[in-house]
Prior knowledge:
The complex is a heterodimer.
Chain A: H1 3-15, H2 23-38, H3 54-57, H4 73-76, E1 87-92, E2 95-96, E3 109-112, H5 113-118, H6 123-129, H7 139-146, E4 152-156, E5 166-172, E6 178-181, E7 184-189, E8 194-203, E9 208-219, E10 224-232, E11 237-248, E12 252-261, E13 264-274, E14 279-288, E15 293-302, E16 308-317, E17 322-331, E18 339-348, E19 354-363, E20 369-377, H8 381-388, H9 394-407, H10 416-430
Parallel strand pairs in A: 1-5, 4-7, 5-8, 6-9, 7-9, 8-10, 9-11, 10-12, 11-13, 12-14, 13-15, 14-16, 15-17, 16-18, 17-19, 18-20
Antiparallel strand pairs in A: 1-2, 3-4
Helix pairs in contact in A: 2-7, 8-9, 9-10
Chain B: E1 2-11, E2 14-24, E3 29-33, H1 40-48, E4 54-62, E5 65-66, H2 72-77, E6 80-83, E7 90-94, H3 95-109, H4 117-130, H5 135-138, E8 141-142, H6 148-162, E9 166-170, H7 178-191, E10 197-202, E11 215-220, E12 223-228, H8 231-239, H9 242-249
Parallel strand pairs in B: 3-10, 3-11, 6-9, 9-10
Antiparallel strand pairs in B: 1-2, 1-4, 4-5, 7-8, 11-12
Helix pairs in contact in B: 3-6, 6-7
Amino acid sequence: MDLKEKLVSSFLAFENSVDLDNPVHDVRSEAIKNFEAKGFPTKKQEAWKYTSLNNLLRTDFSIFPREDNALEYKDVKKYFLHEVDTYKIVFIDGVYSSYLSETTHDGVDVCLMSSAFTKPMYRATIEKYFNKAASKDESLTTLNTAFCKEGAYINIPKGKAPRKPIQILHFATGNEASLMLQPRNLIIVEENAEVQIIERHQSLTSNEVFTNAVTEIFAAKSARVDYYKVQNDTNVASLIDNTYIDQKGKSHVSVHTFSFGGKLIRNNLNYFQDGEYIDSTLKGVSILGEKQHVDHHTLVHHAQPNCESHQDYKGIYGENSTGVFNGKIIVDKIAQKTNAFQQNNNILISDKATINTKPQLEIFADDVKCSHGCTIGQLDEDALFYLQSRGIPKKEATALLMYAFANNVLESVRLPELKIRINKLIANKLGVRVGFEL
Amino acid sequence: MLEIKNLHASVEDKEILKGINLKVNAGEVHAIMGPNGSGKSTLAAVIAGKEEFEVDKGTIALDGEDLEELAPEERAHKGIFLSFQYPVEIPGVSVTNFMKTAINESRKAKGLEDMPANQMLKLIREKAEMLEIDRKFLSRSLNEGFSGGEKKRNEIFQLAMLEPKLAILDETDSGLDIDALRIVANGVNKLKGKDNAIIVITHYQRLLEYIVPDFVHVLHDGKIVKSGGKELALELEDKGYDWIKQEATV
């Protein structure tokens, strides 16, 4: 039985664990039908031309994790951004761990999707937002919708900001030989409200994990959201990360994606601008080696006038790694005075590494500024000579230059502790001997 | 200290240096002047070991040791320093961190431990003060968004930190106003001693009023066509380079 059949036939068993009378379940039922009709994407589809799921789909993943897996904080501390006080929503094999978490209802809601789905007090909000930004026909998204049950639920009311940043962590214990996880997050940031979120998926053993995540983010008028995705998983972990962002006027949403490890990573990052004077920021740093694969598919849909989007993705690919960048920008006819900027720069440090990069612009308005550029290259020889002439050996000089190249993207990170952490990750990843106090 | 004999160098099969002979002793300051395209910057880069240039003939020796097989960083470890005409911008690496890396790599090459942090800090502070460099400047990304003058001052700061045996200043005066020029020259002069030497590459005589050379050489079409004392620089300032070119073709 292949994975699709297994999933479809498991839906009945899944239904035993949820409330069938809940309106959410109608959405799930609709979604499983859609997934059944479409199935997993194949390389024949343009959007999946460079990323094959075949290998993954041959694995016999468990779909329902055991509920009794536990972890000690000291064993996983290093995966937390512990240098700063944060709220934490932690899942172990897809199951909420109250022991490792710190949630709140103090003026803001930082809690669980399972509560939001089932408690009457959240019903109206769920009805208003749940699955409203996510795609109804992209097959992996519908698969997640069909099985959605748990994840992070964050609601920041008008004018509020949580006292501290929020971390969402997903650990896979490896107690199952191979496990499929489908977390579902809903983040609602109301007018003039603000939030900073850090998200990470981490597997702890050499047993295979396949995560198909969906996050919906709603940023109301003048809201500010900074979302940081730290993707530094092991070589047995694959992640398909689907993020849907709906922005209203004058809001600013930034997503930084740091892809430093994993077997296969696919980021589908979708922005919809539904208001004027919106700012959307999409940044990414990918540093991969071995046979790792990362695919960034971004979509920014400018549907109203006077908005901006800034995309800057940097990639460093070594050994047999492969990278994909596909940046799609749609500017509707009424979206005059749009300013859309897109940049993708890559360095290949091995003859066997590959990058496929493609800007995709669909512009229907006539008074817009859209710039895009992609480069694939080696390091600047003059810069290398400059460093060498100061006594820095070629190998270290090369690493330092790559560090500088990648580091550029970090300027817009607004959480200093995270910036330092990522800085160090980049330095380690590139073998830079920097006695840096950063 | 430095001895260059019959040096021929080319880039992409185009010969640029066509037989340079130059001897620089410890304690001396040499100026190399010449019109644009005469090969001044190439000579500096070849001494520092830039790989893009091919040495076709001749030798460069430092303290009797042939440099030909040495990588740029090895030459730096032996005490050669090149102040760049166009310093490269390195975003994300602060001036301080860059200097620490450079100094500790040089120490590592000599089998020494890293310099203790407090000693490093003291050294940085001392040299920054000498060059009237603001402390804020030291935490900025190396050369990124620096003005022309700031870049040059930063080069001399690095020179002061690394205390090389042989300093080559490639057009260090370009982009400097008169005050900055004085500060930079003052910094260079403080490093002058009986054990090290300086080669100043310049198009104009201006810098030589502050860093006074013992010898002036005129480079034209890849060769040193005239050498003399500091008065030669004044003569060039006065008469331009045309008479040199004519003399050379005769």
